[in-house]
Amino acid sequence: MQGNAERGIRLNRARMLVAEGELQLALEDLRSLLSGIDRKQYRSSWRNLVLNLMSRRARADRDRRSGTSDDRAYDRSQNEIAIGILELIDELEQSDAVIGTYIVEQPIAISAAAMGNAEVLTTDRSRLKSVAWLRRGLDCAKSVCRVVTPNRRGTGFVVNANTLVTNHHVLETASEAADTVVEFNFEADDEAGLCEVERFYLDAATFKTSETLDCTAVKIRDFGGKWGQLTIEAGKSVKVQDHVVIVQHPQAGIKQICMTDNGVVNLFENFVQYTTDTMAGSSGSPVFNDEWRVVAIHHKGGDLAKNVAGDVIFVNQGVLMSAIVADPDLAGFICAG
């Protein structure tokens, strides 16, 4: 019989596998985990859900190989399966059958090969940052939260003391907001465990949204300001080749940050495109400039675009905050810092 601590470790491993895109391995881990739970604690619906998700994944692979499904449909199917797995993990974590201690596995450090004596910048723009810059980023990361709606998962962040900002496609209606929870500190601690999470509800009466700009804002109830707030950069100051950092909950898992290969490659209308990594669940994340001011809200990925050199590249995309603060549906509710 499995111990609760072991089950907790295995659940977190499954969540990490989803974040890495290893959906089949995550499903196999969950099926194995469920087979080890006492019969009296076992719920056949969990097992049936795992089998259903495995069947959907196999069917999506088969359709892709046969050419009956294109890449966009395949990616959409994989995202839906990933969300289904994460929702099951959430349910299992809350069940008496699988309560335990959550441990995050650490990657293995690999030392770099010996180099010559010459030391230079490897690009035409320095990517060196001060340690103070990093401390400021960690402080800003506190204001980024996981958004758990009745229908989906995403990322959000706090501005103007107690206003949650996320995507419209994450939080679409006031009725959804009434049943939504936002989770702060959902991240790994210094000892590879899970930090103590603090949850808040939303004030649905304050709900504002713009489908055009894919942005929703709503007040957080009884927030108190413990987790801080972010500063918005309303001017169109972001430029091609700027660095942008995204703090996010990829695949609705623990909070992560992308700080490498993160250049802006295109600007058009109300949007900015960048090479910064994101995943399903990252929707609604703040896009920071080098001063840790929010220049955009991340909302989608996978668009093909041309950069300034005329190349076709695979990019992610955010909505510029300059457009959001000027929107009549959101004006006065989301204010520049």
Outline the fold blueprint.
Elements: H1 4-19, H2 23-35, H3 44-66, H4 71-94, H5 131-141, E1 144-148, E2 153-159, E3 163-166, H6 174-178, E4 181-184, E5 198-210, E6 215-220, E7 245-248, E8 256-258, E9 264-268, E10 271-274, E11 286-288, E12 294-306, E13 312-320, H7 321-324
Antiparallel strand pairs: 1-2, 1-4, 2-3, 3-6, 4-5, 5-6, 7-8, 7-11, 9-10, 10-13, 11-12, 12-13
Q: Can you describe what's shown?
A:
This protein is of the alpha+beta class and 337 residues long. It has two domains: 1-96; 143-336, Thrombin, subunit H, CATH 2.40.10. Helix content is 28%, strand content 24%. It has helices spanning 4-19, 23-35, 44-66, 71-94, 131-141, 174-178, 321-324; strands at residues 144-148, 153-159, 163-166, 181-184, 198-210, 215-220, 245-248, 256-258, 264-268, 271-274, 286-288, 294-306, 312-320. A seven-stranded antiparallel β-sheet has the order 8-7-11-12-13-10-9. A six-stranded antiparallel barrel has the order 1-2-3-6-5-4. Helix 1 runs antiparallel to helix 2 (23-35) and helix 2 runs antiparallel to helix 3 (44-66). The longest helix has 24 residues, at 71-94. The model is unreliable at 96-106 (pLDDT under 50).
